[in-house]
Amino acid sequence: MGMDRKIKKKKWPPKRIAGLAAVVIFIGLVIYVFLFKFSKSTLNVKKERITVSTVTEGPFQEFIPIIGNVLPIDTVFIDADEGGRVENIFVRAGTIVEKGDPILELANTDLLLTIMWREAELFQQTDNLRRTRLSLEQYRLQLNQELTQIDNLLLQQQRTYERYKELRKDSLISEHEYELAKDQYEYLVKRKELTIESQRNEMKFRTTQIDALVAQLKRMESNLEVAQEKLGNLTIRARVSGHLTSLDVELGQSKAPGQRLGQIDVLSGFRVRASIDQHYITRVEVGRTGQFPYADHSYKLEVKKIYPEVRDGRFDVDMEFTEKEPEGIRRGLTLHIRLELGDISEALLLSKGGFYSSTGGNWVYVLDDSESVATKRSIRLNRQNTEVYEVLSGLSPGEKVITSSYESFGKMERLILQ
Questions:
Q1: pLDDT digits (tens, 9 = 90+) for 309-334
Q2: Are 55 and 247 in contact (CB under 8 A)?
Q3: Structure confidence at residue 36 (pLDDT)
Q4: For a surface tag, which of 103, 171, 239, 409 has the fewest beta carbons within 10 Å of its beta carbon?
Q5: Which among 26-35, 134-143, 398-407 has the top mean pLDDT?
Q6: pLDDT digits (tens, 9 = 90+) for 149-176
């Protein structure tokens, strides 16, 4: 009789071992990946090496920093109205001049010869006019004598004719004698009429001739005055009172008409010329104001003129002081100006810093409540000035942000602050 043998069951069958091993491997893999990723995306940073700024809500005004140069309120250029050789220099650059003061003198031989020729021509024309007028007076006397003679003959013949007319009635003279007296009388009447008509036409012609000579003489006098005025322009005088800041002449130099010789700065005030990036050309308007520090005070300027021409990516504006000019300000001084581009408005603000060069303003590291961990967060910025950015989204008032440079952080997702 056989006995049944009890089979001993194994505690760790192969399938169970295999399943348990798979679970252990999965857990290990998860831990490994987590630790690997955590170690790769986290960086320890010392607090003293970073700058932390608080997001605030307050008034924002967009402005840009520009550099302006002080210029005189007005500049008058000195040009050569007439060409010539520099004969005399009465003052030098750097001198204060009064309006009308002689600055330099040019010599122009051709202009002198032209004036001499025109003076001789004018003298000749004046003599022609005098002789023509004298001739007209002589002719007028001659005509008067001739007319007087005709009147005398006519008067005598009229008496003879009237006497013969009476004698003819009594048949005391022949018909032939009467006809002769009548014909002679009528001839003298007609001769007088023709003489008067001829004299009138001749006088009209000669008067017209004199008028033409007078008109020509006036033109010649006017031309001579212009030439003499040009001669006077060879002495170049200050057109305004001010500071003769430049004078580019030397004795013996030849200067062409219209050539720039120097300039005078009017000392009654100053203006500021600033060069601005063309990016802002549509936003800078006449009336915009800017401020600059000088001698521990702040002064305000106002845009008065905009030059639309763009050169080397920049355009110029002229600004003037809105109040009294600073004491001691002078031509050529450089001013650092904050030019306003818009009105003041309420906005969410973030201080400017080195982070922008790494992120372009698209993301920042934001500290948690414990201020021991900073996490990467996407944001959106808008306008800016020299101090702050305007935040459109991604941040809230009171949050703290690392605003110093991110160059040493790489692409870390989190920073541990120590």
A1: 999 999 999 999 988 888 888 888 99
A2: no
A3: 42
A4: 171
A5: 398-407
A6: 888 888 888 888 888 888 888 778 888 8
Note the pLDDT of residue 301: 93
Distance CA 88, CA 354 (A): 62
Topology adopted by domain 64-68+266-340: Elongation Factor Tu (Ef-tu); domain 3 (2.40.30)
| Cα–Cα separations (whole angstroms), residue 362 to 63, 365, 366, 378 | 22, 11, 13, 6
In this model, does residue 281 exceed pLDDT 50? Answer: yes
Q: Which residue in this structure is represented by tokens 């003061």?
A: 101
310-314: Cβ within 8 A, 24+ apart: 310/278, 310/281, 313/277, 313/278, 314/275, 314/276, 314/277, 314/278
Q: Write out pLDDT tens, residues 331-384.
A: 889 999 999 887 788 899 999 899 998 898 899 999 998 889 999 999 999 888
Which of 365, 357, 352, 417 minimizes the C-alpha distance to 395?
365
User: Nearest Cα to 181, choosing from 192, 165, 170, 166?
Assistant: 165
* Cα gap 9→358, rounded to integer Å: 67
Radius of gyration of the chain (CA): 54
- Are residues 238 and 75 in contact, defined by beta-carbon separation less than 8 angstroms? no
pLDDT at residue 35, as a whole number: 46
* Cβ(188)–Cβ(155) below 8 Å: no
Residues 6+ apart with CB under 8 A from 115: 224, 227, 228, 231
Q: Where are the domains of the chain?
A: 42-61+345-417, 64-68+266-340, 110-233
**245 alpha carbon, distance to own chain's centre:** 20
How many other CB atoms sit within 10 Å of the CB of residue 355? 25
Q: Match domain 42-61+345-417 to its CATH number in 3.30.70.120, 2.170.8.10, 2.40.420.20, 3.40.50.150.
A: 2.40.420.20
Tokens representing 113? 């010869």
pLDDT digits (tens, 9 = 90+) for 45-64: 888 889 999 999 998 888 88
* Whether the Cβ atoms of residue 108 and residue 82 lie closer than 8 Å to each other: yes
